Each structure stands twice: as C-alpha cells, then as structure tokens.
Amino acid sequence: MIFEVFITFALGGCVFTPSEPERLNDLAEFITRYEVNAFISTPSVTRLISPTKAPTLKFVMIEGEPLAPSDIETWLSQPGVSFFNAY
User: Which portions of this protein are annotated as coiled-coil regions (predicted)?
Assistant: First the structure.
C-alpha cells in the first residue's frame, strides 16, 4: 500500500478513500463524482464496479486475491483502460 500512495503523490495525484457506505452502496458513483482515474483494490471489491458506470477509470490494478478469467475479460474489454494484476 505504501508503494501505491507514494507513486500517486510523486506523480501529483490525490488519494481518495471512500467511506464504508460509499464502498458498499455505489462505488462507481464515488469514482465518477471524484473523477478517479486510477483504482487499486482486490478482485472482490473491483467486482462491485461496472466499468461502464465508472468511465473516468483509466488504470485498474488488482492485488491481494487471485483473479477470475471474467475479471480480466471485464476490464480488458473497456477501451482506454489499462488493467494490471499485481497479485
């Protein structure tokens, strides 16, 4: 987690952490509202986001759990999104 925060700050970015209700109820809306363009999380949390409802995302990194083939297909089918597995 330290690496991700350091890189974000080094590149002039901001770190946003959604509240528990935002994370559980409408994570895609939070991402769109704050124009989040990079998202780093586990596959379980990333599955809560429909890529079409979070159009600002351009970089998605998955870590902490194994990926399912459907996770890869979901994100690689989105134009302009870079998808990385850091597991």
Answer: none
